[in-house]
Design a protein that fits this description.
2 copies of one chain form a homodimer.
Chain A (H helix, E strand, L loop, with lengths): L8 E6 L7 H17 L4 E3 L17 H20 L6 E8 L16 E8 L2 E7 L11 H4 L8 E4 L2 E7 L8 H4 L8 E6 L7 H16 L3 E5 L1 E4 L2 E4 L3 E3 L5 E4 L6 E6 L5 E2 L7 E2 L5 H19 L5 E5 L3 H14 L4 E5 L7 H14 L2 E4 L3 H6 L7 H23 L2 E2 L5 H6 L20 H12 L7 H5 L19 H13 L4 H6 L4 H20 L26
Helix pairs in contact in A: 1-2, 6-7, 6-12, 7-8, 7-12, 14-16
Chain lengths: ~550, ~550
């Protein structure tokens, strides 16, 4: 079908897919295509691995799953046609079957492909296989896929389009490099790109780089949603080589933005065509990332309610705010569990906060439970851990009795240093702040307060304490959080060794203390997974190391 | 130095290395070389990645670690010479540095090598880089290393030796294939090969295959010891292409076996030269594998004592036997925690077992602790989980107060089906039986009884029960274990889908029940890691999947 006297209209279908739910993902595609068609779109572009969800990890080695994924592509093409959507050109991602033989008996290399399919009139019009397979950080694609090595262009409506999948545009050369001189009008990339702070800017940079080299804009369609340990932020866009933003979809929410090839952009609030939605501040992005990750973790694991153990401190309060935004405040129960070590200020802060948030509130003092264990004669750390474990047990009991996901409230500084009790405050499957350092927690809380949050000045200003013995403060055993977090950042995010950190001017004693804590805590962290594997990215694949020495010197 | 009028003597130095402890591993190498020299060895061969330990995972991306590993090779060569061991030819494994640039900034492919070094007279005489990089199951080497592509032979003492690293001999072709026609006298392979049942037979098969093709024996030197989730069984050997075993080291223990090239084998009990040690039965191997994994998990994480929650059932009894063999019975404390739901028979069985085992024994009834939580009004599953969590809390409290590693006692059938309480019986960092199905647990227990074990006939014969409510039996909610384990084996070990299982004759309702349990329990398992990641190997890299449907059809 030719498009007469009007530009080619693209729909960027930024949907939240679900790993393993092939039927459900196909339904989402059909639904999105109906909307696209109703808005006169010609071409609909979905995120990477649309039908299987992403990332599928070792599901790729399960034959029953592979065949289902492969069959689904043809079935979807038929379903689109049956629904009167056959005239659309639909770009979806799925598994491209490689050799069956390699998957049987001794598997030692991957043969399947991470594939883009173009569906049209009930058929598969063309395919493209991802060339660059990321295998670092959270990615393991060399394990799972064989690389494609053919650049692909398609000509539709008198225009020529190049295609790419995610990592293909992050590297020099490869199949995208081969498009140089092909005179394409647009490079269409489908992506499964997880969020980290400032990532949109990096992506824009790729658009400028590729746009300059290929002489055309880049269409970047990204997955959105949480999947286990990852959060994909969406934020699909079109940008040309001069850095002009031609269209921009929302971050952290499903969205469909239409873009007419060659037309001028419009502003947010002026509809969905050629629109450039306004992105939030970095603080807002980090907050939204946590809420989306938590919401989808619940959704995809069968929870629509949440339980938060409220201590009166800032971490659990921020997590409660996030839970309220993820599940609705009426679906959040805050449980305050004071002990004789709990200060009056914490008690007031917790009650006032829960009241202001408007969630359900339960107060369950734990003194009698603690006393019940007097016969064990526990002392010092063992007794303190008992307090923490009694609270964990109450939260889990409440969850078992009434339903709801127990939210873990550990921040990244605590996780890194092992400043938590195994099976105590470490209960709960997901911490929405586990990738946020303590000093950043304050900033994110302050941001939330500008958007109706109710974290009190008292919570924001008091000295952090686990309140497991009277008068306890975190800084009794840890460096102050600004210093601690700076060292942690160098060690974990920047992957620096001891010598590099000392050369950077950090205090020797503090560096040794922090390295010692992080290395030693690796054992505890492995036992108490509380969410994003990326939370301690540098350590993600670390094995146990000798805890008596600092070998990163 | 020439060897006059006698064969070339090899020492197979089967040592237990420690990931990250480069200095400690180097010390072990020097010590082993002293022994080799004292026994007139000419050539000493160590396991794969000797100096770094194996597997090192993402430590390969930490520059401070890389440089230390790289420097260590030269330092070791000097140290050997300084210790009067310079005339030995020492084959050790370590990291071979690739490009620094690729490791800085954006890392997207690995450039370092998994390298074999031949040290002699204070120098590095030659090196070989592993060609085939396993990236399936528990291995991720394409992530970590660049492949080498040059076959290497060395001529020493008038003989010619080919070299290989582990996976190189498991595949067709590659650098080992290139040795064909080179007229080598021996293929020397250093390995880091984890145990699974029957693996020695498979390795012997490789020796016959390569020996036939290359016309020479294979020397297979394997790592021994537990490292986090893996257990390496050692069992180093020399075998020729006709399948004649020329030398065989112990499994599941450090060992040094000498082999004179061209000499006839001798029998176990006749010294360490050309000796063929007798291997245990498969049941013995599985048992020993568990003990070694547990012992090294403790050793490498700083524990030399163990705590076992004894229920009176067979799982905890077998784990206590294993703990006694790993740490010594005087270092094992069994804690029996009866509730009103505990049967008299369990009480008798637990007491008698602990007495027979000769470990420390504590009885801590939990009725009063349960009553203390009456105010929570818990019912049904929530109440049952409370019992389990109180026991978990007591075990952890005991560990915090007195030291010692809490042993998790979950078997593979329970883990697969999610038949455990989060933060209850799932506490404890390591279950020595987590890769053993329940029906196999009985066989391993019976085996142990033939070697002085004291698991009573009553424990072996009674119906399995969690005893969380009166009269409860596992078979109330699960298929009988023989049936359950057969379905689990097909689904997990054989990676079969639902249709394949039905075609194999399994009952439809039971298959659906079991698939449903396994898929749904993935969420729980992720929260409660209790040891070997390989325990549910097929699911190792699975992401969360829709728990409302069985998509493996």
């Amino acid at each position: 079908m030719a498009v007469e006297n009007r530009p080619v209209r693209f729909a960027m279908a930024q949907i939240d897919t679900f790993v393993g739910d092939i039927a459900g993902n196909c339904e989402k595609v059909v639904k999105a295509c109906k909307k696209a068609k109703a808005n006169d779109a010609d071409i609909v572009v979905f995120p990477e691995m649309t039908l299987t969800g992403y990332p599928i990890d070792d599901l790729v080695f399960k034959n029953s799953f592979r065949y289902q994924a492969s069959d689904a592509t043809r079935q979807l093409a038929s379903a689109l046609k049956d629904n009167g959507l056959g005239d659309l050109y639909v770009f979806v991602g799925s598994l491209g079957l490689g050799s069956l033989e390699a998957q049987e008996g001794k598997i030692w290399y991957a043969t399947d492909h991470n594939r883009l399919f173009i569906l049209h009139e009930g058929e598969i019009l063309d395919t493209y296989d991802k060339h660059f397979l990321p295998t670092y950080g959270v990615f393991d694609e060399l394990r799972l896929f064989a690389p494609g090595d053919k650049a692909v262009t398609v000509e539709l409506f008198g225009k020529k389009f190049g295609v790419a999948i995610c990592e293909d545009i992050w590297r020099e050369g490869g199949t995208v490099g081969d498009l140089r001189g092909d005179g394409i009008d647009l490079l269409v990339s489908m992506n499964g790109s997880p969020y980290n702070e400032g990532k949109m800017k990096t992506r824009y940079g790729l658009a400028v780089e590729k746009g300059t080299k290929l002489g055309c804009p880049l269409m970047y369609v990204n997955q959105v949603g949480g999947q286990d340990d990852l959060v994909f932020d969406g934020g699909s866009f079109v940008m040309d080589g001069e850095g002009n933003l031609l269209a921009q979809a929302r971050q952290f929410a499903e969205d469909m933005v239409f873009w007419d090839l060659g037309a001028a952009p419009s502003k947010d609030g002026e509809g969905d065509v050629n629109v450039c939605r306004t992105l939030g501040s970095l603080d807002e992005q980090v907050y939204s990332n946590s809420v989306l990750g938590l919401k989808d973790y619940g959704l995809k694991n069968g929870f629509d309610k949440a339980i938060v153990g409220l201590s009166g401190g800032i971490d659990s309060a921020l997590c409660a705010e996030m839970a309220a935004d993820a599940f609705g405040k009426e679906n959040v129960t805050c449980i305050f569990m004071p002990s004789p070590c709990t200060s009056e200020r914490s008690e007031e802060d917790a009650r006032e906060f829960a009241k202001a948030l408007g969630c359900k509130f339960e107060e369950i003092p734990i003194s009698s439970f603690i006393s019940a264990f007097d016969s064990l004669g526990l002392k010092d750390g063992a007794e303190e851990n008992l307090h923490s474990r009694i609270r964990g047990m109450i939260l889990m009991s409440y969850s078992n009795q009434h339903g709801g996901l127990v939210i873990n409230c550990a921040n990244k500084s605590e996780l890194a240093t092992g400043y938590f009790t195994m099976y105590g405050d470490s209960v709960g499957a997901y911490s929405p702040i586990c990738d946020i350092y303590k000093s950043r927690v304050y900033k994110i809380a302050a941001y939330k307060n500008t958007k109706g949050g109710c974290i009190s000045q008292s919570m924001l200003s008091k000295a952090p304490s686990a309140e497991l013995h009277p008068g306890q403060k975190d800084c009794d055993v840890l460096p102050d959080y600004e210093t601690l977090d700076a060292i942690l950042y160098a060690y974990i995010e920047e992957n620096k060794g001891r010598a590099e950190m000392l050369a950077a001017g950090f205090d020797r004693a503090k560096v040794d203390q922090v390295i010692g804590l992080v290395d030693k805590a690796e054992w505890k962290r492995r036992q108490c997974p509380v969410g994003p594997k990326v939370s301690l990215r540098a350590l993600k694949h670390d094995r146990q190391i000798p805890i008596t020495q600092h070998f990163f010197e």
